[in-house]
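Many introductory courses stop at the sequence. We go one step further.
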Amino acid sequence: MSSHPSSAVITANMSTPAQTCSIRAMVVEANPVIREGLCSFLRNAQVEVVAQARNAFEAIELVSQLTPSIVLLSVPRLGPEHLAAMQAMRRPDPQIGIVVLSMQGDQDLLLQALAHGATCYLAGQVSQEDLAAAIRAAAGGRSLVDREALLKAAGSLIALERNPAPCTDPLDTLTPREREVLALLTEGLSNSNIASALGVSVGTIKTHICNILSKLHMADRVQAAVWATRRGLGPQPSAARTSRRTKPS
């Protein structure tokens, strides 16, 4: 089996000739063995594989460069970074099809995935026929969703309508660390500066910011910073400026 390049972004164009392929796909999967298996399956199905990515951040970079018609997002379980990435991938091309292949059939994840831009959602043990059908559906602008997960989601929506949950302050959905990052965003700091201030890597900060944007339903860091400032999370006036000066006796 051939090895993948060690660069941050993995790209490929090893499909059947482009003139025989009307669907251009990008495969997102962390495991290189599974990723190559999915690529082989797509090529056998006459789908041109134009890119491969190991994670959501690489996928965002590649979408704008290579303009695939569909993205196959294979993850064990959807996380906030995947939801934020789906929104980001659809900004340059709202018509792009996103097929989520997950081991989790959780109804909440299904609803979140659809709300954040997923076109098709397949969970658990998926047959080759079902995956091929999802790819074709997404490329044609149609949705295809796992039936069992959809029925569970519908049941949850009915129950929620009968017993609505109390409103939750968006700030309460953030972890203490995410609040710290959000507060530093209000100061206009870069990712590297925030990472230095908190003693973590830049990649960790990027993950926190993706989570924050997803939880707060914000489009970008500037919008989140403005919102946080209005909520009082911005830098506080120094004691020197707020304390009253005493007159000399």
